[in-house]
Amino acid sequence: MKMKKVLAVLMALTLVVLCFAACGSSENEGAAGGSTTGEKTIKIGLSGPLTGNNAQYGIGVQNGAQLAVDEINAAGGINGYTVELEMEDDESDPEKAANAYANLMDWGMQISLGTVTSGACVSFQGRAKEDNMFLLTPSATAVDAIEGDNAFRVCFSDPQQGVEAADYISENSLASKVAIIYDASDTYSSGIRDSFSAEAQAKGLQIVADESFTADSNTDFSAQIQSVKSSGAELVFLPIYYTEASKIIQQANTAGLDVQWFGCDGLDGLLRIENFDYSLVEGVMLLTPFTPNATDENTQNFVKAYEAKYPDQASTLNQFAADAYDAVYIIKQACEQAGVTPDMSVSDTCEALKAAITSITYTGVTGKGITWGPDGEPQKPPIVVRIENGAYTVLQ
User: Fold this and answer.
1) Model pTM?
2) Of 27, 189, 241, 387, which one has the fewest beta carbons inside 10 Å?
């Protein structure tokens, strides 16, 4: 009788051991296949504003990046591995961007697209630098957004935009007397303003008015407009985002201010504002790396694919979507150059990609023959467009 009890206990213990062994085997198989741990998957993470005032930018980046990921996976992935994309909503807030970084690391992020906006990217980049995480932001323009040697960008930096804008105005004799209206509370705006002002004066342009506002005073621009009107400015430079720019241009029209308006990539979105009189922005000029009506093959293929995948989101087909689309393909090219695999550590992946990106040349939607130096800045020619008949016209 005692022997039977012993045998029963032994059989029960055997079943328990077999059960745990089977569970362990199942988990290991899942890990090998990449379905649970991502060992066979290259994971790219980013954050940006999916809600709030800048959501159009964040959704555009999310869509553009996902489109590229889907195309790459359909074509066999990166070095034979599937690519996954995860995006957190940071609402353009630095603190939320830091939290987003932590969440993405918990998810298993191996490579980062950083964040969409500059202030948030400065915070996000600080965390990435500590981990030696490779970061390629599509659209964060502040100098500090790619402070570490682990970080690069697709777009022009704030100083680059300011210099290129001043050079274009001078070289094309658009004006000799220039006014500036900028957001002193925003690093993007003030950064471009500073470099533009210095370069404009170096080129012999006269800054006749230099007006600022802040996030707490961005609805009534009557004082700034009156100052510009009294200054005799022929052109107003707007290194700001399209929401505030539309208010300034609308209020300037009411005040009878007749000038040329010139801005940077933040103005991309002027033609996608609901219940806005687009005739007010006819003739506005801006630096931008992308316009959907460009005739080159890369742009047309991207626009066609984007509209097919996101038929109800025409307002997000902007330069931010194009920057993100290119960013993923740049990562693909650099990964293939470096032979990156998912089993590499975050730091080893970063070291490999840092070397690779400075040795490749990329041509895509937002530029031809783009190269990068160790400082992380892209080298590419600027594109200037003018709004004509409710659309962008590329200027030569």
Assistant:
1) 0.78
2) 27
Is residue 156 within 8 A of residue 141, CB to CB? The reply is yes
Which backbone phi and psi does 73 adopt, to 5 degrees? Answer: -65, -40
Which residue in 153, 163, 68, 162 sits closest to 116, CA to CA? 153
Q: List all residues 6 or more positions away from 1 whose beta carbon is below 8 Å from its beta carbon.
A: none
CA distance 117 to 120: 6
SS3 276: coil
Query: What angle is formed at CA 70 by the lines to CA 66 and CA 73, rounded to 5 degrees?
Result: 135
Which helix (DSSP H) or strand (DSSP E) does residue 385 occupy? strand 384-388
21-35, 84-98, 175-189, 268-282: least confident range? 21-35
Chain centre to alpha carbon of residue 263: 18
Three-state DSSP at 89 gives strand
pLDDT confidence of residue 359? 98
H or E stretch at 170: helix 158-171
Fill in the amino acid letter for 1. Answer: M
- Determine contact, residues 155/323, Cβ cutoff 8 Å: yes
**What per-residue confidence (pLDDT) applies to 314?**
86
Tell how many helices (H) and how many strands (E) occur in the chain.
11, 14
Kindly report each contact of residues 345-352 with a partner whose C-beta sits within 8 Å and lies 24 or more positions away, as own/partner: 346/109, 346/110, 346/131, 346/132, 346/133, 347/131, 347/132, 349/110, 349/111, 349/134, 350/132, 350/133, 350/134, 350/150, 351/132
Kindly indicate the confidence band of residue 346, based on its pLDDT and cuts at 50, 70 and 90: very high
Distant-in-sequence, close-in-space partners of 284: CB < 8 Å, separation ≥ 6: 249, 261, 262, 263, 267, 270, 386, 387
pLDDT at residue 53 in the model: 82
Which letter does DSSP use for residue 15 in this model? H
Cα–chain-centroid distance for residue 130? 21
Domains along the sequence of the chain with CATH: 41-155+295-309+316-381 (3.40.50.2300), 159-288 (3.40.50.2300)
Dist CA 207 CA 236 (whole Å): 10
